[in-house]
Specification:
With 342 residues, the protein is an alpha/beta fold. Helix content is 36%, strand content 12%. Helix 9 links the parallel strand 7 and strand 8.
């Protein structure tokens, strides 16, 4: 068994609330996964379309930290183990906004779309402070941001640029982050004629923007999202090396994908498959996990400090799974990646 630091677990991706909202089920699930061995923290999703007030329901004007009830989440985290850190991801809000506003994004060359994205990130920073206040400490280590927009009807690939992203990163670095670090999580890019799922900027453009902004923003590499981009299992290690060589690596996230349809979704979709053998068709095998961990190198052993790379794990559960089955998928995935050296 590896002696590497604990994992930031994207528990929400396998949570009961993905399918339906039953607070008692959600509470049982969150309590169980937060107490699992080797879990050092949880990733919390920011949902910009959830209303409420920070002092009342626990939501925020224009956003909350739970798909259904931000106030519930802020109360629930007070009962989790005190050693847990948190990251916040803006991917649910980003994808929701892109569905309604195709020019939305931090990398948008459209002034209105870029300003809307900056306003959304400002609300995310408010949510970070609310989460820290709820647990009485600066527990949020990072906020995952994304280099939207993507090509769509009326929006060309040229509508996103490294220059626009650089300007956004320089501006948002001045927000009151309360100890959290802004981090771009790389998703599959729109490259050539290859099909894409997210379709954001290429990794090289993201690194260019981060370096030019010189604002302390980091970059996270997600195994599945790099594989999906190039349909190549060696892509994550290449991306990891590029980020490491540029001095911007902030996090390394394991998540699976498959070249064929599974119970989790279509081939090459970003459905956060568990590692093999939990999902036999997952490309995330023990050998590939081990290779990725080796590429990550000694820098991953530095723990969870605000400027140190962290390890993450993001897996989903089959739809309609009960609470016990969801916990078993998460627990089994943790055991599999730890056994492989991650």
């Amino acid at each position: 068994m590896t002696s590497s630091p604990g994992l930031i677990l994207s528990a929400y991706a396998a949570a009961p609330a993905i399918d339906s909202w039953h607070p008692s089920d959600e509470a049982a699930y969150l309590s169980a996964v937060g107490a699992l061995p080797y879990v050092a923290g949880l990733e919390i999703p920011f949902h910009g379309s959830v209303g409420g007030s920070a002092s009342g329901s626990g939501g925020l004007p224009g956003g909350a930290l739970h798909k259904y009830d931000g106030g519930w989440l802020l109360r629930a985290v007070r009962h989790l183990p005190q050693h847990l850190a948190f990251t916040v991801t803006t991917i649910p809000d980003t994808m929701d906004r892109l569905g309604r506003e195709p020019a939305f994004g931090l990398a948008s060359t459209d002034t209105g779309g870029r300003q809307a994205a900056l306003a959304a990130v400002f609300r995310t920073a408010e949510a970070v402070r609310s989460l820290n206040d709820a647990v009485g400490r600066q527990a949020v280590r990072a906020v995952h941001l994304f280099s939207a927009p993507r090509p769509s009807a009326g929006v060309s690939a040229a509508s996103a640029s490294a220059g626009a992203l650089r300007a956004s990163l320089a501006e948002l670095a001045g927000y009151a982050w309360d100890g959290a670090r802004p981090v771009l999580e790389h998703c599959d890019a729109a490259i050539g004629n290859k099909p894409w799922i997210k379709g954001f900027l290429p990794l090289e453009a993201e690194i260019e923007a981060i370096t030019a902004a010189d604002a302390g923003v980091g970059l996270a590499v997600n195994w599945a999202r790099s594989v999906i981009e190039q349909q190549d299992v060696s892509a994550p290690s290449r991306h990891l090396k590029l980020a490491t060589d540029a001095g911007v690596l902030a996090g390394v996230v394991l998540s699976g994908c498959s070249p064929v349809d599974t119970a989790f979704g279509r081939a090459w979709d970003d459905m956060h498959l568990p590692p093999a053998p939990l999902e036999p068709r997952s490309l995330l095998t023990a050998d590939r996990i081990r290779e990725f961990a080796v590429t990550a190198g000694a820098g991953m052993s530095n723990g969870l400090g605000p400027s140190r790379p962290y390890r993450g794990l993001k897996v989903s559960a089959p739809r309609s799974a009960n609470v016990e089955q969801r916990i078993a998928v998460v627990s089994g995935s943790i055991a599999a990646v730890r056994e492989a050296g991650f």
